[in-house]
Amino acid sequence: MQILILAGGKGTRLRPLTLHTPKPIVPIANRAFIYYQLDLLRPLNVDGTLEVLLSLSYQPRKIEETLTHEELGGITIRPIVEPHPLGTAGAMRNIRSRVTGTLVVFNGDILTDIDLRPLLDRHRARRAAATLVLVNVADPSAYGVVELDAEQRIRQFYEKPAPGVTSASSINAGIYLLEPEVIDLIPDGREYSFEYDLFPRLLASGLALYGEVTNAYWLDIGTPERYRQANADVLHGRLRRYPPESSPSLTADGSLVDAEATLKSGVSVIRSVVGANCYLEDGVSVVDSVVLAGSRIAEGSRLSSSIVGRGVHIGSHCVLRDAIVGDKSVVTDFSRLG
Ligand code: GDD
Ligand code: MG
């Protein structure tokens, strides 16, 4: 079984968090994001032949260095660095010579607990060329919207449609089951997008394209709001795979505080994540926020709905609300951000 994780994007909407940390390895609940995707894929490794192709472009070495052998648990990972960003479909074309059968493609920023096995069975039973996993969301405008017919065949695809273009609410979940003939439609060696280039071509090709709507937990972690949401959802057991009781370090206030963080007197941490080697001085309060490793928050500062990168120094008596602070920044005493 072969999986391709598209992990080469620049993570622009998550800046400044992604300036020094590519999106596939930003920490969610103090663990690099890519491990959640590998957890999901591990059950597919029934015969020990699971191969995960990792297509990289933006800061590839950091991703390669993060993947440690113990955490991989028997999965073969093959990083493939693109000569230049090839786009979502170009990345698939780039690995064509390695593909031996049905390929499962994953956007590298999808947090989900979907079970892929029944989808693979149906994909094969129907002899589909491509099956797109779909999910219903309240506001589809930030995604690729897919219209199906009564047989679940894909009729139309609209990437990030303007208001009024379609009334469909099923969106492309960024998980595709593809046969090699689909990859053959992609031109070699140039930037090519799945959403804008390949999909229209696929619709015109007459190949059998199906959509499968899932009710599983699903979230694209690629904006600050959704990044915080992902942390909260993992903490609170909204993914079946990570029930809260599996995290003994969760505090009574629903927070995850790394064992190597120091909390001085009167500190309150509520529904938040605090990373290793953080130092929170007297009276600091952190609510609905994520504070990454090695950051220091001086006395009396209050954070809510905020994200603090690695190695940040926040001075005393600051107020951060809906703020996002990049790695190694210094925020002076009495600042108000957000
Ligand atoms: N290897 C490689 N090379 N990967 C890339 C490249 C590239 O040039 N460009 C983007 N990617 C990766 C990103 O790292 C990400 O994991 C994935 O492709 C999707 O890119 P995003 O930038 O996150 O796209 P999006 O979220 O706006 O939209 C996509 O995902 C939605 C679901 O979350 C589209 O596929 C939408 O149709 C879909 O609904
Ligand atoms: Mg995305």
UniProtKB/TrEMBL annotation:
Origin superkingdom: Bacteria
Nucleotidyl transferase domain: residues covered: 4-235
InterPro entries: GMPPB_C, Mannose-1P_guanyltransferase, NTP_transferase_dom, Nucleotide-diphossugar_trans
Pfam families referenced in this protein's UniProt entry, alphabetically: GMPPB_C, NTP_transferase
Gene3D superfamilies: Hexapeptide repeat proteins, Spore Coat Polysaccharide Biosynthesis Protein SpsA, Chain A
Stretches assigned to the Mannose-1-phosphate guanyltransferase C-terminal domain: 256-333
Family, as annotated: Belongs to the transferase hexapeptide repeat family.
Name of protein: NDP-sugar synthase
